[in-house]
Amino acid sequence: MARVVVDVMPKPEILDPQGKAVAGALPRLGFTGVTEVRQGKRFELEVDDSVDDATLAKIAESFLANPVIEDWSVRRVEP
Amino acid sequence: MARVVVDVMPKPEILDPQGKAVAGALPRLGFTGVTEVRQGKRFELEVDDSVDDATLAKIAESFLANPVIEDWSVRRVEP
Question: Minimal Cα–Cα distance from B74 to chain A, Å?
């Protein structure tokens, strides 16, 4: 068994209304100094040792992310 | 300027319907060996150097996460 983290973030050129909303709200709540916020997704997967990196990349690209508008990265982490 | 990553994940004892849906769909799409999926959020913040770790923790806990149902972590990353 291994733990895998897949991070999915909107591409830099894509508008990110959720992130913009957070960035706009922070000063109103008294937090200054945050100049940009981007919001994405984080998936934590428990996978059998039989699942190789190529399969994980396929899962991330074809299923967890929309590669037209999102960048993704896959990494194995210590459990 | 520094880049900060805030990871927000549902607590282990909280049901995660999005993650469950992903885990249930993967075998139907031909991907076996993934035993569990949890879906959370990832925020990337650009912050001034004046923003200290205590402020970042407050932002994460009070604003980016719902600490009743979510765990969160803050880390500074290389730009």
Answer: 14
